[in-house]
Write a structure and sequence with these properties.
The chain is an alpha+beta fold. It has a single domain, classed as HIT family, subunit A, CATH 3.30.428.10. The chain is 21% helix and 21% strand. The chain has two helices and five strands. Strands 1-2-3-5-4 form a five-stranded antiparallel sheet, covered by helices on one side. A hairpin with a 3-residue loop joins strand 1 and strand 2. It starts with a helix and ends in a 9-residue tail after the last strand. Bound molecules: adenosine monophosphate. The site of adenosine monophosphate has 13 residues, from loops.
Length: 112
């Protein structure tokens, strides 16, 4: 059973897609927490980062490189934050691995 994000990959659910390649997809978060808030997902479903295996090494590296590419494309490469929520207690609500790319406002540290 595909998650919500799996259905965005197959276009069963619409999304504001900003980047796509063979392995991943990036689209704007429906409830943005910053002026730029994009979700970057692998097309292959991995429920959460803790489930990733050594065989996913290239894919995970690809996601990080794609995040940099999306940041440059959106004009925020000088200052952005990537967040991965892993597990419900850490705020994960969709169990298809995703990177949050946040930018466009001051990003304080430590995060909440
Ligand atoms: P997380 O809480 O880390 O699992 O992040 C899930 C994110 O998905 C949240 O920031 C939601 O606002 C976002 N979201 C949920 N449904 C959609 C959707 N249909 N299109 C875009 N973003 C969504």
């Amino acid at each position: 059973m595909a998650t919500l994000f799996g259905k965005i990959v197959t276009r069963e659910i619409p999304a504001d897609i900003v980047y796509e390649d063979e392995h991943c997809l990036a689209f704007r978060d429906i409830n943005p927490q910053a002026p730029t808030h994009v979700l970057l997902i692998p097309k292959q479903e991995i429920p959460q980062l803790a489930d990733a295996a050594p065989a996913d090494q290239l894919l995970l590296g690809h996601l990080l490189l794609a995040a940099g590419k999306v940041a440059r494309q959106l004009g925020v490469a000088d200052a952005f934050r990537l967040v991965v929520n892993n597990g419900a207690a850490a705020g994960q609500t969709v169990f298809h691995l995703h990177l949050h790319l946040l930018a466009g406002r001051p990003l304080h540290w430590p995060p909440g």
